[in-house]
Amino acid sequence: MRSFEYLRPTSLDEAVKLMAKHGRKARVLAGGQSLLNMMKLRIASPEYLVDLCELDELTTAEADSRQGLRIGAMVTYHQLQKSGLLNSAYGMVGDALEVIADEQVRHVGTLGGSCCQADPHGDTPNVVVALEAEMEAVSSKGRRLIRAGKFFAGLLETALASDEILVNIRLPQQPASTGSAYEKFAWRKGDYAIISAASLITLGNGGQCARASMVIGSARSSPLVLGRAPSVLVDKKVTPEVIAKAAEAAFEEVEPEADAIYGSSEYKKELVRTLAERSLLSAWKRTQRGIN
Amino acid sequence: MPRVSSRINGKLYTAEIDPRTLLLDFIRDYAGLTGSKRGCNEGKCGACTVMVDGLTVKSCNLLAMRAHNKEVLTIEGLATDGHLSPLQQCFHENHSLQCGFCTAGFLMSAKYLLEHNAKPSDGEIRESIHGNVCRCTGYQKIVEGIQAAAQRLRAGREEPVVAKVGT
Predict the structure, then answer these.
(1) Residue finishing a domain among B58, B77, B96
(2) I want to staple A48 with a disulfide (CB 3.0 to 4.6 A). Which of A26, A94, A227, A278 is the partner?
(3) What is the CATH number of the domain that holds B24?
């Protein structure tokens, strides 16, 4: 790790000023479970490290029946798991938290931090994109909301400017009878995903699908939002057979990048079909049960 | 250089440190407590697991500054008055260690589990030690040791417990 100056603001205002002053030379430290390893490898070598650990306003999460769920960027995976906020509509978030690394990492790692790491094999980018989250960022120029679909800009890249700090992740309120689920495949639980699928289904009256969405992770450098596969479901009565057809459409739609470590494009493509089907079945079950 | 002040196993340690100092290095080099081990140094193997304010963390992947004004518990804090804790004693009796390098980390993860789940299933035990690697692959005996400790802590008794996995 190269040397850096350690800065520990005690207010968001102070943090914003530090980022305005140091910009590209600075990195924000959240949980550090990715960034510290990047720094040990000298992939990241910030001259200033702005530690947000004293900003209590970033460590809270709350549900609002109109606004949905607001998750502070410094809320740890562990806090979120214990929060009781993840109902069936946000079920995919709970699924993702369970398969991120291990308990020690989940005690420290944060949702905001892993989104800003933007690892193509990470879990959290897929679920925030699938839930159409808005990423709230602050800089000396003010606040802005970035759609999650536009936030992930490629390998370890986000839409954040060098002086911006991610402060909240806002998950919109979902209609009743919505269920969502996340499935991933890795050689060992907690490893980075080889392929993952995040699916969401909203049922209308009579059990037909009013809305569906699906995001495939680890196929490309950013979460891949599918168009055809969800459209197979919409306006149809959901059955295991229809779900199998949607999974087949996902298989046809996704051309995963080959991966030197984890396997060929063909191998990953097969996983898309399997995980698409599993995640849709699980999301569908949650719409019926209304529980996580 | 920033100043860090941290209570480790009840004793206050204060030092001016290079901000790069990892909590593991602070524990080993400043506090002189060498029970916590450096395995991979990248947060994978769990040999450096300690508790900070009651939560297990990998001390090789946390800046020492993050333990400022916090309570740290390391493996050296488990025994009292020279007597092994029931959990340590059960590891000893059940042969839950071979080379011993990973043991401190496993004990901290197991301690966290038993503090939150008095009657874990074997599956829950395996889940709780997911972040710890035993390169001797002695997992079965580790699970038995933790299961024995759970039984002993529930019974509040001191005599040896022969663990049966699946109980």
Answers:
(1) B77
(2) A26
(3) 3.10.20.30
Q: How far apart are CA B46 and CA B154, in angstroms?
A: 27
Task: Give B19→chain A minimum CA distance, Å.
Answer: 6
Asked if the structure places residue B161 within a domain, the reply is: no
Q: Per residue of chain B (167 residues), what is the pLDDT tens digit?
A: 899 999 999 999 999 999 999 999 999 999 999 999 999 999 999 999 999 999 999 999 999 999 999 999 999 999 999 999 999 999 999 999 999 999 999 999 999 999 999 999 999 999 999 999 999 999 999 999 999 999 999 998 555 556 666 54
Partners of residue A145 on adjacent β-strands: A136
Tokens of A223: 């979460």
Rounded Cα–Cα distance for residues A8 and B64 (Å): 13
Q: How many domains does chain B have?
A: 2
Domains and CATH numbers, chain A: 5-51 (3.30.43.10), 56-171 (3.30.465.10), 178-287 (3.30.390.50)
Supply the ipTM of this predicted assembly. 0.94
B25 contact residues in A (CB cutoff 8 A): none
CB atoms B131 and A190 under 8 Å: yes
Separation between Cα atoms, residue B152 and residue A40, nearest integer Å: 42
Residues in chain A whose Cβ is within 8 Å of chain B: 1, 3-6, 8, 29, 32-33, 36-37, 40, 49, 51, 53, 78, 101-105, 107-108, 189-190
The distance of A43 to chain B (nearest Cα, Å) reads: 14
- Locate B77 and state its tokens: 């804090």
Cβ separation B42–A105 shorter than 8 A: no
Structural domain boundaries, residue B130: 86-155
Q: Which of B58, B68, B73, B124 to mutate to test the interface with A (most CBs of A within 10 A)?
A: B58
- All residues of chain B having their beta carbon less than 8 Å from the beta carbon of residue A8 are 2, 65
Shared-domain flag, residues B70 and B93: no
Q: How far apart are CA A199 and CA A246, in angstroms?
A: 11
